[in-house]
UniProtKB/TrEMBL annotation:
Subunit annotation: Homodimer.
Domain of life: Eukaryota
Annotated ranges, domain Enoyl reductase (ER): 12-338
InterPro entries named in the record: ADH-like_C, ADH_N_2, ER, GroES-like_sf, MDR_fam, NAD(P)-bd_dom_sf
Name assigned to this protein: 2-alkenal reductase (NADP(+)-dependent)-like isoform X1
Lineage: Eukaryota, Viridiplantae, Streptophyta, Embryophyta, Tracheophyta
UniProt keyword list: Oxidoreductase
Gene Ontology MF terms: oxidoreductase activity, acting on the CH-CH group of donors, NAD or NADP as acceptor
SUPFAM superfamilies (UniProt xref): GroES-like, NAD(P)-binding Rossmann-fold domains
Length: 343
């Protein structure tokens, strides 16, 4: 079984050279292997949070089940979709398609209790959607926007990393809720996509702005009501400075800090107090109670052409390291995936 691992702990920006491909026989996860499910991985998800597991000193995220620290040489668990090739678990049969915690590897031995679900054969969508728009990214966007931001029609919404996996879905949910939406992203191509293909009211390239605070004043002359924060640092500070009374900030991610420990957001607390702003972090997996609503609403939007999924798919296990490093350079447009095999 070929798998991707880190060669050493990563400090700062990752590069393809921090990783290597190794090979090892499949080992049973349970003592006799009698309840294991062996999955041939078809698509694996490439997610920014993985970098926080690859540092020598990781933060409090160690306490979060999906973000346990990795050691050089270890296999790397990651969301994926695949096909069952052998099963000792009565719930899963050979050849069934499944989604869950698999790994950056050809095959994963899934032990009982690890998140694994059958893909609903009534949902006639591309398999890759179960990692993006109908998977963890979609749930993050849906839960963060509806449960945390609690939008009202006509409110003004800013989304950062807006052309990324979570961001492009948040903007579309916001438009469907009757909000005014501006996205910020790191290239001209992304800005055009947001405005021309995804229906954002406006978008800008934050790399071309010397002062993001005054840029936000231009894009939101009447202030911001909701900021869906994927990046942290200066953009969060600027959003809070431009926020209306009772504004909400959903802190989804802080990618600028994942590779640069100095990038801390320090929004002005006087603004927070007098404008009664709520700044709330969240994790998608605390919102599983709305999972069924999320799947039914989102699949309906896709079927009726009201939502689009942007995907960016590389081919082959050997492309995982560069696909991952590319997240931190802004190479990806939409959900970054690697396809390892065909059904
Ligand atoms: P994306 O698809 O958005 O990929 C990351 C994007 O972030 C890049 O394409 C790049 O776009 C942008 N970026 C990279 N480095 C920087 C930087 N230094 N400053 C500003 N932008 C940067 O990833 P996801 O949609 O999967 O994740 C988005 C965020 O949400 C991440 O922070 C992630 O950790 C978080 N997340 C949180 C979850 C939760 O439960 N709370 C669940 C899933 C994700 P650009 O070209 O615009 O710079």
């Amino acid at each position: 079984n070929k798998y991707v691992t880190i060669k050493r702990f990563i400090d700062g920006l990752p590069s393809g050279l921090d990783f290597e491909l190794r090979s090892a026989p499949l080992t049973p996860a349970t003592p006799q292997g009698s309840e294991d499910v062996i999955v041939k991985n078809l698509f694996v998800s490439i997610d920014p949070y993985q970098i926080n597991r690859m540092k020598e000193y990781s933060s409090s995220q160690e306490t979060v089940e999906v973000a346990r620290r990795l050691l050089p040489g270890q296999r790397i668990d990651a969301f994926g979709v695949g096909r069952v090739v052998a099963s000792g678990n009565a719930e899963f049969k050979r050849d069934e398609l499944v989604a869950g915690m698999l790994g950056w590897e050809e095959y994963t031995v899934v032990r009982p209790g690890v998140m694994l679900t059958k893909i609903d054969s009534n949902l006639d969508f591309p398999l890759s959607y179960h990692l993006g728009i109908l998977g963890p990214s979609g749930l993050t966007a849906y839960a963060g926007f509806y449960d945390v931001c609690k939008p009202k029609k006509g409110e003004k919404v800013l989304v950062s990393a807006a052309c990324g996996s979570v961001g492009h879905l948040v903007g579309q949910f916001a438009k469907l809720s009757g909000c005014y939406v501006v996205g910020c992203a790191g290239s001209k191509k992304k800005v055009e996509l947001l405005k021309e293909k995804l229906g954002f009211d406006d978008a800008f390239n934050y790399k071309e702005e010397t002062d993001v605070k005054s840029a936000l004043k231009r894009y939101f002359p009447d202030g911001i009501d909701i900021y869906f924060d994927n990046v942290g640092a200066e953009m969060q500070e600027a959003a809070v400075a431009n926020m209306n009374a009772f504004g909400r900030v959903a802190v989804c991610g802080a990618i600028s800090r994942y590779t640069d420990a100095g990038k801390r957001a320090a929004p002005d607390m006087i603004d927070v107090i007098y404008k009664r702003i709520t700044i709330r972090g969240f994790l998608a997996y605390d919102h599983l109670s709305i999972y069924d609503d999320f799947i039914s609403a989102t699949s309906d939007h896709i079927r009726h052409g009201r939502m689009q999924s942007l995907e960016d798919i590389s081919q082959g296990l050997e492309s995982v390291p560069s696909a991952f490093a590319g997240l931190f350079r802004g190479d990806n447009v939409g959900k970054k995936l690697v396809q390892l095999a065909h059904i």
